[in-house]
Design goal:
Helix content is 76%, strand content 0%. The protein is built from twelve helices and no strands.
Length: 294
């Protein structure tokens, strides 16, 4: 009886351990990340109600330090930095989510075509992905924006161009392993079209890893967009954007508040996105959490 009782106890502990790994609320970092992102999303939605000043109004004295009247001080032309940080969330977060969604959709579609159909389509798509991977992402994005012109839309397009190959490779690899499974062959023998087979039989096995990759990519998208704006290749003045605000602060090293507060906003959003991305990965693939504990 003792071996059986020990086996039952071990199985119960394994079930509890798996349940704990799957529960994101038992992870402090996931709660912190969710709270930070929820706060910034709230600020982005309610910016006109929360911001004490117009983000482009030059109504105050220049380069005032943080005070009770201006919590984050004022910039070199008299604009309230706190209001501009809040309004910066209205630009940085939605644009980052949009470009991740577009890159995910494009990369998934191309990866599915390459992995399922093969042939010349696979060669063309994967060689294009290899060409993108041959360059550092930020350098290629800078080249694309420089060729198209410095603008926020062009910056988003540039980040999408450098981001889609990662999704394409993941999807292609998974479809290559799944298309030889018995259930896929059975679907073909029953007369299902290629599109139906991809959507009904292959898609469920691809969704999880793609969601994980997209969740981890949000922070990178915010950082890349801010980097392009810092270099003058993204949002144009007088639009409030965190990267361009940090660039303005870099010109006034003795006025620390100009760059510190938008830089902290970027840091918090990137960390929160990475915390949530790691949680999503562990929830969808508990084996990664087991490896992390070992």
């Amino acid at each position: 009886m003792r071996p059986r009782a020990a086996a039952r106890t071990a199985r119960r502990l394994d079930r509890e351990d798996a349940s704990a790994m799957r529960s994101p609320w038992l992870r402090p970092l996931s709660v912190v990340g969710l709270a930070i992102l929820a706060l910034f999303l709230f600020l982005a939605v309610a910016a006109p109600l929360v911001a004490p000043y117009d983000p482009i109004a030059q109504d105050s004295m220049k380069l005032l330090p943080p005070s009770a009247e201006h919590w984050f001080g004022t910039d070199q032309i008299g604009r309230d930095v706190f209001s501009r940080v809040i309004y910066g969330a209205r630009l940085s977060l939605p644009v980052a989510l949009l470009l991740v969604a577009v890159a995910c959709a494009v990369g998934t579609l191309l990866g599915a075509i390459a992995g399922y159909f093969g042939g010349w389509a696979e060669g063309l798509i994967m060689r294009s992905a290899d060409l993108v991977f041959a360059f550092p992402g930020i350098i290629l994005a800078m080249a694309v924006v420089a060729a198209l012109g410095p603008d926020l839309v062009n910056a988003v397009l540039a980040v999408v161009i450098v981001s889609w190959p990662a999704y394409s490779r993941v999807v292609r690899g998974m479809i290559l392993s799944m298309r030889e499974e018995n259930y896929v062959h059975a679907s073909r023998l029953l007369g299902a079209s290629s599109l139906r087979t991809l959507w009904v039989d292959v898609r469920p096995g691809v969704v999880g890893p793609i969601v994980v990759l997209a969740a981890l990519d949000v922070g990178n998208a915010v950082l890349t967009l801010s980097g392009l704006s810092f270099l003058g290749l993204g949002a144009r003045p007088p639009v409030a954007e965190w990267g361009s605000m940090v660039a303005s602060g870099a010109q006034y090293f003795d006025k620390w508040w100009l760059g510190v507060f938008p830089g902290l906003a970027i840091l918090l959003v990137v960390l929160a996105a990475n915390f949530l991305g790691d949680t999503v990965r562990d929830v969808l693939d508990p084996r990664s959490a087991r490896r992390g504990r070992a």
